[in-house]
Fold 8-amino-7-oxononanoate synthase.
Amino acid sequence: MSQVKGLEKTFQEILARREAKSRLRRLTVVPPNSADFSSNSYLSLSTSEDVQREYLQRLQSEVDAATASSSHGQSASLLGSGGSRLLDGNSSLSESLEREIAAFHGAKAGLLFSSGFDANVGLFSSAPQPGDVIVYDELIHASVHDGMKLSRASKRIPFLHNTAYPRETAGGVQAASSTTNLALSSILDTLVRENEGIRSGTRNVFIGVEGVYSMDGDVTPLKEIVECVEKLLPKGNGYIIVDEAHSTGIIGERGRGLVCSLGLEDRVWARLHTFGKAMSCAGAIVLCSPATREYLVNYARTFIYTTAPPFTTLASIETTYQYLMSGKAEPRLKHLWDIVEQAHTLLLSLCERYNPDPRILYVNPRKPESPIIPVLTSRPRSLAKYCQDRGYMIRPIVAPTVPLGKERVRVCLHAGNTLEEVRGLSEAIGAWLVLEIAKKGGRGNDSAKNRETTFKPRI
């Protein structure tokens, strides 16, 4: 008993230290009637009356079909799958969904997972063989890190975010002070020179990137990355994995994603599409070759040892994908991109009007590439609470989710947002900014200097 008490005390001390650094995470419930500028439901399909109606009709049709085919009037099994897919949890709907979704995204095969986290962990932990290497964007998702830790890869090497080749500066090629500051090409070149297996093609290099990065909302330069990998690994032993979690549904024709929009389906080894963001349901799929699919069925532990998604989940995936495939989401996409532009313009106008110290507020002037607009501030909790109190749900993002000095609120736009809501959020941020400037007695330190030394935004 004393041992348990001692452990609880340790937990309390750890949590107290985190709270003292303003890093303590807490569960909260979104107040009713708040304008959503926080969730990842970019197309607002979960609140669409059409989608809800089609989903309920799909559930009812399953109940009716099961009742009609049962001599005992037995109800359909809607709430549970009965086990893992390798036991009793597989279904014809699971397999038909995999085929249909793969075909929609121009892939040869696909395997459903219960979540994007499970999909990344399963893929990155099982695919690399002993002696292989994983090279990944330094801002890759936490699920990829967990998968890599469980893998048999001999090395895991980060490369400078969204950088295929070394960047040119006024003084020439950018200097590198650490591995993380190296471009992808520099790392691959070193691996080829120093590793005989990689040079000969008997060892593999897995390259992990995201389509859209959730904290900055920027899009990976995928075409350049693909060309870089093909050039430096001409033996064909470079395997690119693209996590399309935040690009599914919003980028490319009918939301097929970044890979399809660039025509790179045959040059990217594996893709991960999740359903919990723009698709407004749950689960994920790894798109790959038939051989890779069969390998994952046998070796991806997050697939093998987890309960299969129930019919209710499969039906929601089916409903939202049919909505996307039919083109019904196109008006929503158009409205979404319109308000993304409007929101960015309004936020930039605040910076121009008040010229704040960028430690108080900074917005990247570059046109957004996604519905995610980061608003950098050293006081993210204060700004988020001010807006939340006025009915606008935005969330503070602090370390360790983002590096120290890159704290922010993340404004996520949705097809369900109105222009009036966007204007209201901008006004709330502006009112908070006026109060912050008044507290500091003006603009504070030189903005140009702080723009370089504090946030170092990528523009």
Q: What stands out?
A: Residues 169-179, 444-459 have pLDDT under 50 and may be disordered. The two ends are 56 Å apart (CA to CA). Residues 343 and 422 are 6 Å apart (CA to CA).
